[in-house]
Amino acid sequence: MTTVRGLALAAIVAGGTLAAAPTAASAMPDALGLQVWSDSHQRGIYRNLFGPQIMDLGKAGMDDKISSFKANGSKWCLYADTNLRQLVKTADAGEYVADLDGTGFNDRISSVARC
Fold first, then answer.
1. How far apart are CA 42 and CA 4, in angstroms?
2. In contact, 79 and 111? CB cutoff 8 Å
3. Whole-number Å distance between alpha carbons of 17 and 49
4. What angle do CA 28, 60, 108 make, to 5 degrees?
5. Spatial distance between the Cα atoms of 70 and 55, rounded to a whole number of angstroms
6. 104 vs 59: CA distance, rounded Å
7. 112 near 49, Cβ under 8 Å?
8. Domains identified in the chain and CATH numbers
9. 23-80, pLDDT tens digit by residue?
10. What is the helix, strand, coil percentage profile of the chain, to 5?
11. 15 vs 95: CA distance, rounded Å
12. How far apart are CA 32 and CA 112, in angstroms?
C-alpha cells in the first residue's frame, strides 16, 4: 500500500488548471507547468500552475506573492497585471529563479501564460 504524504487540491482557474500541495517534496510538477513559491529558494506557499494561461493569480492566492519559480518544459511569460497585461519576465523552459528580490518584479506577478 502506498502512503500519500501530501494533500493535493485541483481547481480550474480562468482557463488554466492549478494544483496545490503543502510542500514541494510532495508535488508532482506538470511537464509543461510553472512551479511558483511565495518565498525565495522554493519556500513558502507552493503552486504548480499548468494550462495555457492563468489570467488572475489572485484566484490561486498568489497575486503579487511569487518570489521564486521554475519553468518546466515550456517557455512562460509572467505579467505584472491580471489578464496578461504588462509583461515583466519571460522564463525559458528549465529556468529556475531562486530569488526574485532585486530583480524589480519580486511579489509583482499577477498573471502567467505559456509563450
1. 21
2. yes
3. 6
4. 105
5. 19
6. 23
7. yes
8. 9-114 (2.60.20.10)
9. 443 456 678 899 999 999 999 999 999 889 999 999 999 999 999 999 999 999 999 9
10. 5, 45, 50
11. 24
12. 13
